[in-house]
Design goal:
The chain is mainly beta. The protein contains 2 helices and 12 strands. The protein is flat, with a radius of gyration of 18 Å.
Length: 180
């Protein structure tokens, strides 16, 4: 919510980018959070533990959200530790996690990714972005399927994810973004 470069902020912000997710082959967000000191993974309900304090909600694009979601549609994660997170209003004493969604791009691009790992882990992702109808309207569509088995017969993770965002730029400089 603060349109300021991170270097100019009076507090520390840890940022994990989508490029980091890809470079380190991180399949799920809870795999990623181990890279930030004092932060444990996000559980199924969206809760996390930051600096020893438990929180039951995080932010998505600057707005409170309960629940968990996959990393395929997250452009970056911003983690503010301690009372400095009060800039977002009500927060945990440990801090706040804000996940920024991937945004539509006017340049047409498509990407198909397939990754695999141990325990029969596999993830296929299709991402497409570009203009829609007019040059002032752009979209991003992301479809992903993730599977992971285990050495225990009863344990298996299967996640299907879909993300769609449409953005329209008006002549007066205003924007309308709808995402689901």
């Amino acid at each position: 919510r603060v349109a300021t470069e991170i270097k100019d902020l009076p507090y520390t912000v840890n940022v994990i980018t989508s490029e980091f997710f890809e470079d380190f082959a991180m399949f799920q967000i809870d795999d990623t959070l181990t890279q930030v000191g004092g932060l444990t993974g996000i559980d199924v309900g969206g809760g996390f533990n930051l600096r020893g304090f438990t929180s039951t909600s995080q932010l998505r694009d600057g707005f409170y959200r309960l629940g968990r979601y996959g990393q395929t549609n997250v452009d970056r994660m911003e983690i503010i530790k301690g009372p400095n997170a009060g800039i977002y209003g009500r927060t945990s004493p440990g801090g706040m996690v804000n996940m920024i969604s991937k945004a539509p791009n006017k340049k047409d691009a498509q990407k198909l990714t397939f990754r695999y790992g141990s325990f029969d882990t596999s993830q296929g992702t299709l991402e497409a972005t570009g203009t829609l109808v007019s040059p002032d309207t752009s979209y991003i569509l992301i479809l992903s399927q993730f599977n992971r088995a285990s050495d225990m017969d009863w344990f298996h993770i299967r996640e299907n994810q879909g993300f769609l965002a449409v953005k329209h730029d008006f002549a007066n400089g205003a924007h309308l973004l709808v995402s689901a």
